[in-house]
Amino acid sequence: MKPNKTCGNCSNNFFKKNLARWTDTINTHLTNILKKLSCPTELKKSVDYSLMAGGKRIRPILCLAWAEMLGLEKNKILNFACGLEFIHTYSLIHDDLPSMDNDDLRRGKPTNHKVFGEAMAILAGDALLTQSFELMANNPIKPNYILEAILQVSIAAGPQGMVGGQVLDLSLENQRQTSLSQIQEMHRLKTGALLEVACVSGAILAQEVGASKTDIKNASIYGRNIGLAFQIVDDILDVIGDENVLGKPVGSDIRQGKSTYPSLVGLEESYNLAQKIIQNALESLQNYKGNTKIFLEDLANYIIERAH
Amino acid sequence: MKPNKTCGNCSNNFFKKNLARWTDTINTHLTNILKKLSCPTELKKSVDYSLMAGGKRIRPILCLAWAEMLGLEKNKILNFACGLEFIHTYSLIHDDLPSMDNDDLRRGKPTNHKVFGEAMAILAGDALLTQSFELMANNPIKPNYILEAILQVSIAAGPQGMVGGQVLDLSLENQRQTSLSQIQEMHRLKTGALLEVACVSGAILAQEVGASKTDIKNASIYGRNIGLAFQIVDDILDVIGDENVLGKPVGSDIRQGKSTYPSLVGLEESYNLAQKIIQNALESLQNYKGNTKIFLEDLANYIIERAH
């Protein structure tokens, strides 16, 4: 089953099957978590609706993969990894709200507030965010490592990170001219911080089996560059993507007058930039080996391939 | 400065000065936390506006007082205690939103969304909730105790606790007839769970200096009863209170057709019930001694005295 590294297609198919396996692992655990959740029925439905709407589970997968590559048995931190998906899902629900981005569709389905109303959507987000910390606090790993990971996640997801990024995003929308550095800062906070901390927290938790500060640093470099490339490709796909594949309308950035990488530096240069950034991510993996290392390499390359 | 226990007025004045000192401690630390917060200016203003709007800081005080009574130096857990106030403040901002309770005033001032708009109010709440866990994760206490406390707080504040309580509250508003047990369940989750876990987390953290499971149990009994009494008195004050003292309109429960303790069992019986419940809280303190024990007794009695 080792991929033929000279054949792009085989390698790609191998990766996709592998990715689907990781996604299944997360989905199974998310389903178990939801089964055990005891709360008002309508709230549970609303949480379930958005959590199980078919995301790729990139954040928990990054956390698990980094931990596994560094030697940690991934079943030990499934709760923690799923906590990251809870945070991601809450942020999508709140971002879609009428007072924010006012989106009607998410992954091809009506957004949470369209189905459950605004109050329940806000509360489902609050519930997911709060429960994410319950999940992260509850893993059979030494408490000091869990605490260190929780601290990093809360910083990355909070006012200095993701929430701050959403504030910047809203303020940039009301601005006539936006510079590339403003866009970069916004993306770094809004989507980059959580992707980075997903890798970093995996490495922090892998200290349980001897991971070092250098490993944590490498996870940080990988995660930061993945996040940046991901956003550039997202911007590219908003110009050249297929609505049916993306599950959301293309061209919305242009219609909303948003500054994006393509609108600021052009499609070609955006693509080159993304490729350079993925190269930085790949370099952070050079000291590791094994199947999970190959998976993380493939994942980095896959991000670029989406833009083809 | 020891209070004359035979004179209610002296004792009350002594308590109020004492309470003000505890509140000052929390306010000073909250100010320090905000000073260090680096995030977009408008977000910081919005967070600051609600956090420093003059709350009594009951939750952090309960946490500190329980910890101190059990022998823990309270300066060690100031971050943790302030995290509880962050959670309380986020819940007030979100509860006030137009799609929720649609309140224009809070503590005599325009609500957060009235000043900063709905999007920023939602994000300020999200920021406070997320940062609360950063604060709780960061205290010079053994990681296993911090983690245990964080776990309990996240359960109490999440879908099985406070968020679930707000969902019940909204659903009861749309219901013609409400039973006392439904109201009790709603209050237990919406306000009771966080008050209880404030005491419980103080006792959990005091395991650092030898506090026992029995101490944690006592903190739980005290907190649960304080919370219940607090809500009954709140309902009473909505009938007989002074608008200027409360900083919010009285009679709003009746106008909104909400079922309350007075509307369901009458004023007199509500008052008797609150007194009985406070007695339960006081009994949980009987094995302790010292000034902080007296302070916690006074605090319990003070809740009832508000209703006079």
Question: What characteristics describe this protein?
Answer:
disordered N terminus; globular; Farnesyl Diphosphate Synthase; 15 helices; mainly alpha; homodimer; 308 residues
Order of helices and strands of chain A: HHHHEEHHHHHHHHHHH
Distance between the termini of chain A: 26 Å
Query: Could you list the spans of chain A in which at least 5 consecutive residues all have pLDDT below 50?
Result: 1-6
Provide the CATH top-level class of chain A: Mainly Alpha
Strand content of chain A: under 5%
Name the strands of the widest sheet of chain A in spatial order.
1-2
Overall structural domain count of chain A: 1
Portion of residues within helices of chain A: over 70%
CATH topology of chain A: Farnesyl Diphosphate Synthase
Shape of chain A: globular
How can the largest sheet of chain A be summarized? 2 strands, antiparallel
What is the overall number of helices of chain A?
15
Which structural category do the helix and sheet elements of chain A fall into? mainly alpha
Biggest chain pair interface: A-B, 50 and 50 residues
The quaternary structure here is homodimer
CATH superfamily of chain A: Farnesyl Diphosphate Synthase
Keywords (chains A, B): Isoprene biosynthesis, Magnesium, Metal-binding, Transferase
Protein name (chains A, B): Geranylgeranyl diphosphate synthase, type II
Family (chains A, B): Belongs to the FPP/GGPP synthase family.
Cofactor (chains A, B): Mg(2+)
